[in-house]
Amino acid sequence: MATEAVQNVVVVGAASGGLSVVQSLSKLLPASHRIVLIEANPVAFWSIAALRAAVLPGFEPQVVHDLSTSSIFGANNTRHVVLAGTRVVDLQEDHIVVDRDVSSLLSGCEREANGGSKIPVDRVVLAVGARSVFPTRLEGGAKTKQDVMEQFARMQSDLAAAHEILVLGGGPTGVEFAGELLDVHPNKKVTLVTRGSGLVTRGNDRLGGVSNKLIAQLTAKGVRLIFKDSVPLERPTTGPLPTLQTFTTLNGESITADYIVFASGGKPDTGWIAAIDPTIVDPATGLLTVDPTFSICSPDASSRTRWWRYYSVGDSANTPGPKVSYMASQHAPLLAHNLVSAIKGNGAKLKHASDSPAEMIMVNVGKGGGAGYLAFVTVGEWITSLFKGRSLHVAMFHKFFKA
Predict the structure, then answer these.
(1) Cβ atoms < 10 Å from Cβ of 277
(2) Which of 38, 153, 176, 251 has the smallest count of CB within 10 Å of its CB?
(3) One fold for both 3-40+85-132+267-344 and 145-265+358-398?
(4) Mean pLDDT of the chain
(5) Dist CA 52 CA 194 (whole Å)
(6) How does pLDDT run across 202-222, given as a tens digit for each residue?
(7) Could you say which protein family the record assigns here (predicted)?
(8) pTM of the predicted structure, to 2 decimals
(9) Which fold has domain 3-40+85-132+267-344?
(10) What DSSP designation does 351 have?
(11) Distance between CA 180 and CA 370 in Å, rounded?
(12) CA neighbor of 123 nearest in space, from 95, 162, 149, 165
């Protein structure tokens, strides 16, 4: 079959959800179709271990990997294509538009007058993930792998120079950052402020035991914990302050800091999609609305025919289960099966998204600490360290790549 006749299955996003979908599709897709993986960042990125890379010099190569056609599909690939450093800016029924000219890399696309490219599609998987701030997400200004490495090195250096660090947020990001920082710099003065009455609970009473264990461990490391309170800042961002500054919380607590870490959780990166068609984004959650088989759906009858080629998975989709890498990896093969069945038109039974069989959460405190909740049981430091803290699953990340 001529290359020009090959139809495109576009996967938007190369975080764990998108990479898992690509891995599954590559085993199932017929020769009539090729995968086009599109990622706005210049590299693939493992956010699970990003907090360690932000404080531990030399660890940053563990969370970053070259993203190219050969790294994903191997040197002998003649069909599939990876477009890194490429942002999708429009979604239409039979094509998408990206922000740069990729005609030399991808046959069959059409250059736009504004310098972008229109790519015809047969199917599209939106694995756009969540947006957040560095280091849990890469900064938009990074154009190369070296830029990303320098961003991590800069944060490592700034934190090494800081004396008092203020962490805003008592969820997993805030707790894990404090633990990683004190593993590397045990004498730093750290204050963590949270609106909640505990750590990582989000009002879930079942996680009370997890919270208690984390509070005990952070307190033992010298972290000052302030609950049911917040620091009024106009635009909280992560980074160093020019000098040691004093902040007053809403409840009157005084805090000094020369570095601030904004550790709120991520939000679905779907604002740009809502601007294209708000009917496929849940206004309450920001998640893309999908049916049980991962297909994008809209309550607006006039919009339904526009999205029949589209699917979604991961942190941006309202699929059941927690928004974590593990859940996306479980859903990806099911989505791939459904997508390929639709292409082949073979009437195969579609697979449905399902929730995790049991509630699971693990929050590490450095390499050796932490707490978790696994199927009705609260676990402590040893189990959390064994299953998460020691490795942060970086080997799983690098297994996605062939080079």
Answers:
(1) 15
(2) 251
(3) yes
(4) 95
(5) 21
(6) 777 788 999 999 999 999 999
(7) Belongs to the FAD-dependent oxidoreductase family.
(8) 0.94
(9) FAD/NAD(P)-binding domain (3.50.50)
(10) P
(11) 11
(12) 95
